[in-house]
Design a protein that fits this description.
With 280 residues, the protein is an alpha+beta fold. The protein is 51% helix and 17% strand. Helix 2 runs antiparallel to helix 3, helix 2 (62-84) crosses helix 5 and helix 3 (89-102) packs antiparallel against helix 5 (121-141).
């Protein structure tokens, strides 16, 4: 009995230490990230009075998919670090998903005070959907069989509107929605465990849009641009399926798995269909 009590006491101490580590380092890192984003997005335009803004018709909803993607991976990361702190699986998934949405609330509030933006209920719905997508898979399958992923390539449009689409790779990565593609990567082996389908090979469905110089379609038309949506069907590599006993490598593969690596894909849009041997 004494040995059992001692063991449980040691486990509680370890759990508390790890939770404290998460709270301290996470708080510092999150504060730094919010400060960096405020410098990137809000420094030049400043902040005004709080207002609401309906931006659901903008950017062909690529920005909304980006919100979904972000909160999904915040939830996924939160779940992983809580499990590292020995939190029970279902509780880790639940609180990780709550944190995924909560982490973006300050950004939405900053948007609310921005003269050029505003508090968007569409963003909040997309945020909640990303966290719910993570939690739903954990509760249904106890694993993530469908992972949102991201890829980016620079476009010439950013040079025409650097103030809006970004000036340089670092800004364009966040601001130029023309270069962003979001994917859902399906783990086929998980859905068909008795098949001979390779565990590391996934099928992916991608979404993006092109020719968006401005946020809304009528603004694009006035500039002489006709935007269009892009859909993709391709293959993807599941980096987390790579077997390794090295913890640092397993962590690195987990983090890198948010990126869709270049691979063959079919593109479908209103103008044409074409094959990309390496789609970024």
């Amino acid at each position: 009995m004494l040995i059992c009590l001692t063991t449980f006491g040691q486990q509680d101490t370890l759990r508390n230490k790890r939770l404290n580590t998460i709270l301290i380092t996470g708080g510092i890192g999150y504060s730094a990230a919010i400060y960096g984003l405020s410098e990137l997005w809000y420094k030049e335009q400043g902040l005004g009075s709080f207002r609401f803004f309906n931006d659901n018709a903008e950017w062909n909803q690529v920005d909304k998919v980006g919100h979904f993607y972000s909160t999904y991976h915040f939830s996924r990361l939160g779940n992983q670090v809580l499990r590292w702190a020995s939190v029970e699986d279902k509780k880790a998934a639940f609180w990780g998903s709550i944190a995924g949405t909560a982490l973006l609330i300050p950004i939405e509030i900053l948007d609310g005070f921005s003269p050029e933006f505003g508090f968007s209920y569409g963003d909040m719905i997309a945020n909640a959907a990303g966290s719910a997508f993570f939690l739903g898979q954990e509760l249904l399958w106890q694993e993530q069989r469908i992972k949102p992923k991201f890829s980016f390539s620079q476009t010439s449009l950013a040079q025409l509107k650097p103030d809006l689409l970004g000036d340089g790779l670092a800004e364009e990565w966040f601001k130029d929605y023309n270069g962003q593609t979001y994917w859902l990567s399906f783990d086929i082996r998980a859905f068909a465990p008795e098949s001979n389908w390779p565990k590391w090979l996934n099928l992916a469905i991608g979404y993006g849009a092109q020719n968006m110089l401005r946020a809304r379609e009528f603004q694009n038309n006035l500039e002489g641009f006709n935007s269009y949506r892009q859909w993709y069907l391709g293959i993807d590599l599941d980096l987390t399926s790579i077997p390794t006993k090295r913890k640092w490598l397993k962590t690195a593969l987990f983090l890198l798995d948010i990126i869709k690596l270049p691979a063959p894909a079919l593109e479908f849009n209103k103008n044409q269909s074409k094959l990309h041997f390496l789609q970024f």
